[in-house]
Amino acid sequence: MPPAHTALICVALPDLAVSTDEGQLSGRGLEGIYRAGRRLLARCRLSVAGREPLPVQARMVAADVARFVGTLRVAPDAGPDPDVVVERTRHADGTERITLRSSSPRTLRLPVEIALGTDLAELGSIASGRPGPELAPSVHAAGLRWSSAAGHVAVTADPPPADALASAGLLRWEVELPPGGTWSVELRVRLDGAGPIRAVGRGAASPFSPARAVSDKLGAEALLRTSVEDLQALLLRDPRHPSDIHLAAGAPWRCGLAPADALVAARMTLPLGTRLAVGTLRTLARTQLTGPGPRAGLIPGPLRDAGPHLPPGCTATEATLLFPVLLAEARRWGLPEQEVEELLPAAERCLEWLRTTVGDGTYLSDAQPTGPLRCETQAHAHRAALLGADLLDTYGRTGGLGLRQWAQDMRTAFRADFWADDLGGGRPAAARAQDGRLAPQLGSSAAHLLDTGLLGSGEAAPGLLDKVRTEQLARLLGSPAMDSGWGLRSLGAKETAYNPFGHRAGAVRVQETAVAVAGLAAAGHEKEAASLLCGAFAAAQCFGHRLPDMYAGEQRTEGSAPLPHPAASRPAAVSAAAAVLLLSTLAGIRPDAPAGTVTLRPFRAAPLGEIGLTGLRVSGAPFSVRVSRLGLAMVEEAGDGLQLGL
């Protein structure tokens, strides 16, 4: 795949614009304007007086807007200083405004040319190195037009060009700039017959509350703002049910629905409201397999690489187990009862699939019945059984007792079967073969053992590890082998086949770093949690507050910066959502909307100093909280009837 780590990626799905920091679109690699996965424009090269502007700055203005600034020295007697500034503002929807500003003391007469071209190729073909041939344009209205079997696309300019040369794909203007004067042109890229498409996350359509963070440590406000913007940019609608929205996995590689990632991100963003959760659950419920057979109740999903020590894992298993968990936790954040009851049958089918697949056994295999028993799969299944049982009991459904008994039996067996003893106190195994052999490698998947979820009583569900082994796991996750200083490595630095750029072999994965922080904090291991949190926070500042889904697990040193992964998605739904979880974990917000209470268990050490979170949502009403430098939390805004729990 072509590298994307240095690209400026504007997203407002289904629209996408990928640019380099030069500002010119040259058609190399992924560069271009896309809609619904097809490149509408590959080349857009600007020249003024026969020269291209010298790039001086490129930055993201918003999730869907990038700004490029260049300079030119035009007048022959201008000396070494530039006398024309060129500013380009590019939007994901294919709109670009180009402005020339003169600082010359004399009037400048400048020929301005824009060379355009496209191949109308699909993103997948471009990413795999198979772009299409450049198409021949024709003059069309105030611009150019290209046609192929894939459709027709046109670029129009306002003001219209003085000349359009189809043979060269060129638009030309003769511009007169008085002293201190400006001139602008706006380009629009459109599919024939298609008007502007309003992105799902814009305006009133956004499912997220207008949350803000204010902290003693610079960057918290920018991190939350940027993350929410990225989440809004990645929103998609179910085409047959446009009121139901969900998140795409990330750009530029994964602009479609990935069930497990969509559920994970919706769960992490519950502090911003429950609308995304219900839209995601409804969308995936419609994909759930029905009818007789062992796969009934499964939510389909692809296989996913699991690193050098294990075969690929099944995201369908993960998604099916996450479904009842998200429903149970969305109810605690205030999902209306009628919507819970609407989705409960699909959750029941997920839980029935779990019981049917396990049968009389103790563990859940993934993805083949004879495959390894993965540590994180058991953690997902155990959590789904306990939170699902709570849901079934609350709504008078049967099956809760059997799920609890199975979870208890698995918990007892797991503590003996999945622990690899060594001289350092032991560790949880990454997986267990069917014959009992352990894969003892330590990786970030162990963090899922700390993610237990909350029961109906408001207390954390029991974990698969006892207190002593939880303390040992906390020490391991906080060790230099796992804590890179920028977040949690996906594989320990001392393990065989460790690779700091391996996306499951040593790279930092933001999702699992956030899971570890929340789990460690809930278990009372704040020192280790704070170290991982501050590392991820520092990495976010280095990435302009727009966290990729992964980056290299190189050890942090004085004056260093995290190394970007060339194949990472940025923005990515799980990393943007992880920022919401990291910041809300600082306040330890534990809502119980059905009981009308909310409990706060903040970090006592206040690793980011005093922090205030405003504009969150509990029970559909605004909720704001402040944590002091002494680690004391205070609710500043809440809905009527919501009480502070113990």
Outline the low-pLDDT stretches.
none
Helix content: 25-40%
Mean pLDDT score, rounded?
A: 93
Record the strand order, biggest sheet: 7-8-9-10-17-14-13-12
* Rg calc: 27 Å
Total number of distinct structural domains: 2
Please summarize the sheet with the most strands.
Answer: 8 strands, antiparallel
Shape descriptor reads elongated
Characterise this structure.
- The chain is elongated and about 80 Å long.
- The chain folds into 2 domains: 8-191, Distorted Sandwich (Beta-galactosidase, Chain A, domain 5), CATH 2.70.98; 203-637, Glycosyltransferase (Alpha/alpha barrel), CATH 1.50.10.10.
- The longest helix has 22 residues, at 337-358.
- It has 646 residues and is of the alpha+beta class.
- The protein has an 8-stranded antiparallel sheet, with no helix packed on it. A 5-stranded antiparallel sheet has the order 3-6-11-16-15, with no helix packed on it.
- The protein is built from 12 helices and 35 strands.
